[in-house]
């Protein structure tokens, strides 16, 4: 069975988005706690599930699905932090 490397794009996009956003927040105090590692895992899971769901559930092409998942997660994160501060 040949591996189609393009199928890894949604997972890669999810990993990139998750790690970039997490690193920005986790490095603020210079210490990365076990709770912050847990948040990274949850974010990776959420974005990868969104990406894979968009490909196989909505029938989007792989780059579009990856972009959609990253965008949705970004918006949800901003909404969550906005309502959390109030």
What is the helix fraction of residues, given as a range? Answer: over 70%
- The biggest beta sheet, please? none
Low-confidence stretches: none
Helix and strand sequence: HHH
The number of helical runs is 3
Explained architecture:
By secondary structure, this protein is mainly α. 76% of the residues lie in helices and 0% in strands. The chain contains 3 helices and no strands. The chain has helices spanning 9-26, 34-56, 62-85.
Summarize this structure briefly.
The protein is 76% helix and 0% strand. The protein is mainly α and 86 residues long. Helix 1 runs antiparallel to helix 2.
Topology:
Elements: H1 9-26, H2 34-56, H3 62-85
Which terms would index this structure?
single chain; 86 residues; mainly alpha; 3 helices; globular
């Amino acid at each position: 069975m040949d591996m189609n490397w393009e199928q890894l794009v949604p997972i890669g996009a999810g990993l990139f988005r998750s790690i970039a956003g997490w690193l920005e927040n986790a490095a603020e105090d210079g210490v990365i706690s076990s709770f912050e590692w847990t948040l990274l895992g949850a974010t990776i899971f959420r974005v990868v599930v969104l990406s894979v769901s968009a490909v196989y559930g909505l029938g989007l092409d792989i780059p579009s699905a990856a972009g959609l998942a990253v965008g949705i997660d970004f918006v949800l994160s901003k909404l969550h932090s906005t309502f959390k501060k109030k």
